[in-house]
Write a sequence for this structure.
């Protein structure tokens, strides 16, 4: 073993000018992973939750957790067994919520910090520019959470997306609503209210397309700007039209305003769906949970049965954050990190090409997942084909899974109660 | 039914507009007094909001406690900003004011991120009182309080400037600082007073807005642009102008969001603003 | 004396030319050089109208965005190399500048600034509602370069020299204007528009010329940005922060001075990038606390910009300026 390392080191020195090859010979004690997240700017709240989730993941791999080790081989502690117990070091960088900073920082992580892989970057636009740099350098880029469809359509070979995309969410809503219809609930008119930046626009247009195909009637569409100082007119419009179902695609700021204003104006639909986003922000749940009882959302995360991977991770995360549990975004980040750690471990090397090959061969079973996917397996575009989503409901300021039946921990309760 | 609904929209707009007026009046006062543009104004509002959040978290106090505390704190901040920074840049070119106050804005915004974290905070929605129905129109307690106080503070500020001795001294300084000095007025003292008054009004606005809004380090950005437009539309230095412009923007926003679509409400507000400037370059109530 | 100054100039030129080669081992430092130059281009372009003519536009992102979108549209809708969109963007920007400038340049001081902010926001909101422009999701350039004409390089070295050439051209043009009749008129307008008018200077016309010229080069900066970063959305194209940064950079170095914006960019861009690299990962926004504090300190002690530290050069020594200098340029009359 010593011999090979030395040989590798010599080989590394010989091609040190090429930079990248030197990575394979880097100190095997630690493996550096870069993480690019919005730690300041408008999405700083989400970015910081994701950072804590990834830190938790690194801590689990490096220091182990006895309970989790029964389910997750990597949680035994002592680093990555495939690399002789190398510890993982995550280098965080702030993308400041701008595509430019995202790209600059990714370049720095790769060329200066010599990370072996990059994880990030929350907003789809930033993931787009950041992953373009990783692609050119030939460094694996694992994206745990961006949902824009075009990211996996670029023919990239180093890009791997773990999360489901907007189309998956829309199909979940559609099947869910059709089931309610079959059960005798009215879903004749559906309002689609969405904020007008990338997230809201892309998700809303996919929902509208899927619903249209599935013969669900979207009777009103309301686009609004995310930084609105006031949402009263929108709520009054909804109150006037009074649709059976309202679907909100919002960030935290506007989610809070909607929750408050709907109570002020005393209006609620029979079924209120909030597409993740702001409505799943722990800050929202804490502050507005008491006036949005019965709110339906989608999430890849539900705490699950005691002793399961999500339940244990949720408890550990709560300890780390002083009370905020895992949510959709943070669980996806943690899942993305585990996928990458697993690949590096199986690669048994820090050579980017080996990690890339290991990522391609990823096959993780659902019982080993933090996120509620059917597994993790990438197609040749780098999309996780087993990614799926759960429909959750807010009960006593906590989201529980209510759909699909096979994965539900609680009965669905309708109509929406609110306050 | 539809008239009732429209009336409801207009009332919501007016209440919102009164709040716009309140958090813009401080900006207007300083603009008028010193011809200084405070790019950190939104951050002053933001700090007023955090004051309300902290007062509630620490001692469970509602606006009755947080409004006076925020008024004092932000007034102090205003005076500090005046003596440490603004006094020195006010004599320089307009660019120095943009530079200095923009730096201050970044400093305060991210200082808040550092101290309070990135998470959104909210006050309990029944802190002020529940919503009630009056003549078929729904009113929300916290918005009514903010609107009424906003209206009152703005009018009081206007009266202070136009009907009192201190006010005329302040106006004298704003007209011609050298002449005022010859008449025995100390310009710096008057200008510091203007910053204190503006800070107090801004602090009150922040503490009140916090009761029905979310609070986050970047919330000032959202509010600042509204304040700029309100002040420019009303006419620099005219507190009454800010009130009229604030109410007008509130109603235009609400109606256009309701009738045309919320995405376009900003477009319409900006378009109205540019149009008004085209016909009245000095704003609605600015001096010619 | 002359020789030592010449020597200094020569040294500066050598440093500027050799920088990317010397830093070739570190892509980050190399890229930093390119970022400084790119920021300097847009700030220098702003300087023409904001610095020389004293019309403080806080809406120049409109032109930056037009340039960036023209480039990306050339790729997305016509499959052309993005840079071919640059001249179209410049023409378009000149046209838009005329449309915006005619009504707003009548406004003085703060009113002009506020009007440009409003127009900037207007354009940003409208751009996010256009599907053709990719809506709020934005548009991406070529994912991988198809040919060298896509100007999509992994190394920052080519960008550095392209940006350097553009900046040199822009500064050369500015220098030429500064020396000429137009520069004289602009300074007169800046000092006192009324006085300039009384001297028979067609203030409105010259302000508009400056505005249009400034718009064209800001647009070019936007196109170059697109080539380098390969993605644009309404916020990164038309966001108000972009406009403010142009103003801040020019003001920090010294507005209305040839090298002012470049000096500003030389300070601010590395400050921003390095503090983000060193402190950003901690996730508490300390980057901007430091950044903000430094700007405040400079504004407090050097309200006319860093270049005021050096001895002020005599203004247009061959001509006599009769206009009265006034401290505050922004009095609404």
């Amino acid at each position: 073993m010593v011999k090979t390392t030395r040989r590798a080191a010599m080989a590394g020195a010989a091609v040190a000018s090429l930079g990248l090859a030197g990575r394979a010979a880097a100190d095997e004690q630690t493996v550096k992973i870069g993480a690019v997240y919005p730690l300041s700017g408008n999405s700083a709240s989400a970015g910081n939750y994701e950072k804590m989730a990834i830190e938790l993941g690194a801590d689990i791999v490096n220091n182990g957790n006895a309970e989790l080790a029964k389910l997750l081989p990597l949680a035994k502690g002592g680093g990555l067994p495939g690399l002789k117990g190398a510890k993982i070091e995550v280098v965080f960088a702030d993308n400041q919520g701008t595509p430019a900073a995202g790209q600059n920082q990714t370049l720095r992580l790769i060329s200066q910090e010599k990370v072996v892989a990059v994880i990030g970057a929350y907003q789809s636009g930033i993931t787009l520019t950041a992953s373009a740099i990783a692609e050119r350098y030939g460094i694996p880029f694992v994206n745990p959470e961006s949902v824009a469809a075009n990211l996996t359509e670029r023919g990239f070979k180093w890009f791997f997306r773990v999360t489901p995309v907007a189309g998956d969410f829309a199909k979940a809503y559609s099947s869910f609503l059709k089931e309610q219809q079959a059960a005798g609930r009215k879903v004749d008119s559906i309002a689609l209210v969405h904020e007008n930046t990338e997230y809201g626009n892309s998700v809303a247009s996919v929902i509208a397309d899927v619903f249209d195909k599935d013969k669900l009637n979207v009777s009103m569409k309301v686009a609004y700007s995310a930084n609105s100082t006031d949402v009263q007119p929108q709520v009054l419009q909804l109150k006037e039209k009074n649709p059976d179902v309202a679907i909100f695609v919002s960030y935290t700021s506007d989610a809070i305003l909607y929750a408050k204003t709907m109570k002020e104006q005393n209006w609620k639909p029979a079924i209120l769906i909030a597409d993740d986003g702001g409505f799943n922000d722990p800050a929202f749940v804490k502050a507005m949970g008491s006036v949005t009882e019965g709110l339906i959302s989608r999430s890849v995360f539900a705490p699950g049965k005691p002793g399961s991977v999500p339940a244990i991770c949720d408890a550990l995360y709560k300890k780390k954050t002083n009370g905020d549990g895992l949510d959709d975004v943070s669980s996806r980040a943690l899942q993305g990190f585990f996928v990458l750690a697993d690949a590096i471990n199986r690669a048994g090397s820090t050579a980017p090409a080996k990690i890339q090959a290991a990522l391609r061969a990823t096959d993780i079973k659902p019982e080993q997942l933090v996120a509620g996917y059917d597994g993790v397996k990438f197609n040749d575009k780098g999309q996780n084909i087993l990614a799926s989503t759960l429909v959750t409901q807010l009960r006593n300021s906590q989201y529980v899974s209510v759909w699909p039946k096979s994965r539900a921990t609680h009965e669905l309760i309708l109509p929406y109660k609110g306050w | 039914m539809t008239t009732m609904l429209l009336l409801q929209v207009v009332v919501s707009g007016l209440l919102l507009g009164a709040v716009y007026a309140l958090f813009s009046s401080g900006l207007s006062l300083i603009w008028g007094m010193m011809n200084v543009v405070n790019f950190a104004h939104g951050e002053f509002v933001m700090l007023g909001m955090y004051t309300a959040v902290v007062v509630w978290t620490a001692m469970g106090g509602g606006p009755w406690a947080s409004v006076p505390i925020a008024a004092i704190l932000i007034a102090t901040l205003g005076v500090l900003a005046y003596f440490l920074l603004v006094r020195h840049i006010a004599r320089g070119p307009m660019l120095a004011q943009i530079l200095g106050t923009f730096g201050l804005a970044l400093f305060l915004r991210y200082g808040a991120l550092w101290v309070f974290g990135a998470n959104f905070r909210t006050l309990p929605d029944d802190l002020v009182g529940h919503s009630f129905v009056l003549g078929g129109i729904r009113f929300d307690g916290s918005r009514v309080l903010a609107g009424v106080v906003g209206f009152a503070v703005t009018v009081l500020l206007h009266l202070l400037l136009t009907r009192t001795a201190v006010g005329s001294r302040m106006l004298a300084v704003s007209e011609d600082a050298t002449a005022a000095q010859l008449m025995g007025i100390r310009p710096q003292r008057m200008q510091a007073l203007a910053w204190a008054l503006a800070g107090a009004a801004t602090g009150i606005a922040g503490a009140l807005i916090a009761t029905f809004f979310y609070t986050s380090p970047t919330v000032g950005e959202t509010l600042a642009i509204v304040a700029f437009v309100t002040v420019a539309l009303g006419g620099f230095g005219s507190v009454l102008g800010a009130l009229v412009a604030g109410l007008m923007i509130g109603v235009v926003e609400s109606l256009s969001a309701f009738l045309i679509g919320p995405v376009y409400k900003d477009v319409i507000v900006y378009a109205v603003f540019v149009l008004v400037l085209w016909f009245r370059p000095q704003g609605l109530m600015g001096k010619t | 004396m002359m020789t030592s100054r010449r020597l200094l100039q020569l040294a500066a030129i050598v440093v500027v030319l050799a920088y990317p080669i010397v830093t070739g081992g570190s892509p980050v430092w190399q890229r930093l050089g390119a970022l400084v130059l790119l920021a300097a281009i847009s700030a220098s372009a702003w300087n023409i109208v904001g610095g020389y003519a004293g019309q403080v536009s806080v809406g120049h992102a409109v032109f930056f965005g037009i340039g960036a979108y023209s480039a990306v549209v050339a790729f997305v809708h016509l499959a052309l190399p993005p840079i071919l969109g640059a001249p179209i963007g410049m023409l378009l920007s000149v046209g838009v500048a005329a449309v915006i400038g005619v009504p707003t340049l009548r406004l003085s001081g703060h009113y002009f600034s506020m009007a440009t902010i409003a127009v900037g926001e207007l354009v940003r909101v409208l751009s996010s509602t256009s599907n053709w422009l990719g809506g709020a999701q934005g548009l991406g350039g070529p994912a991988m370069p198809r040919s060298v004409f896509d100007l999509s390089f992994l190394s920052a070295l080519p960008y550095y020299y392209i940006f350097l050439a553009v900046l040199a051209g822009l500064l050369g043009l500015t220098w030429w204007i500064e020396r000429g009749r137009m520069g004289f008129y602009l300074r007169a307008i800046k000092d006192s528009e009324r006085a300039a008018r009384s001297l028979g200077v067609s203030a409105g016309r010259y302000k508009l010329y400056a505005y249009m010229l400034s718009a064209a080069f800001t647009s070019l900066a936007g196109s170059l940005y697109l080539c380098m970063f390969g993605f644009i959305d309404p916020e990164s194209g038309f966001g108000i922060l972009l406009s403010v940064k142009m103003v801040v950079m020019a003001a920090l170095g010294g507005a209305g001075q040839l090298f002012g914006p470049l000096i500003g960019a030389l300070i601010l861009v590395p400050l921003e990038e390095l503090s983000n690299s060193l402190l950003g990962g901690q996730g508490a926004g300390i980057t901007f606390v430091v950044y903000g504090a430094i700007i405040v300190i400079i504004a407090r002690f050097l309200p006319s910009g860093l270049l005021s530290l050096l001895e002020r050069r005599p203004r247009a020594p061959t001509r006599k300026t009769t206009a009265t200098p006034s401290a505050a340029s922004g009095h609404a009359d």
In short: Chain B touches chain C through 52 residues (CB under 8 Å).
